[in-house]
Amino acid sequence: MTGYVDDGDLTALYQGASLYLAPSHHEGFGIPLLEAFACDCPVVANRGGALPEVGGDAAAYPEAATPEAWAATIRDLLADSGRLEQMRHRGRARLAQYDWNETARLTLEVYEEARR
Fold it and tell me: Are 87 and 59 in contact (CB under 8 A)?
């Protein structure tokens, strides 16, 4: 699928996916990981950019940035329903750490500390 995808369709795509793959080497924040977590979609991400910080222990990370390593990670995950369920649970917990109210409160604390 290419082009614009509206929010409703995007949610359905995440919910219907077995995995969300994030192979980007240079990701500024990784909002799509949080979107996938919100839709109970397990994530496989590259170790580049902010993806490991956002994904934490809720995402799987291939050993190397090679097609073979990605294929092995995907194959292993799809064969392990228990691990996929664990990733869904961790994804929900990880998402909770990015609550907008909490993020705003923490940002305000940083500004107040910088002002002093």
Answer: yes
Number of domains composing the chain: 1
Q: Determine how many CB atoms are found less than 10 A away from the CB of residue 77.
A: 17
User: Residue 74: what are its φ and ψ, rounded to 5°?
Assistant: -60, -50
Q: What pTM was computed for the model?
A: 0.85
Residues 43-96: tens digit of each pLDDT: 999 998 899 999 999 999 999 999 999 999 999 999 999 999 999 999 999 999
Confirm whether 68 is domain-assigned: yes
Question: Helix, strand, coil % (nearest 5) of the chain?
Answer: 60, 5, 35
Q: Yes or no: say if 51 and 30 are a contact pair by the CB < 8 Å rule.
A: yes
Instruction: Find, among 38, 30, 28, 29, the residue nearest to 7 by Cα.
Output: 38
Which domain CATH number covers 49? 3.40.50.2000
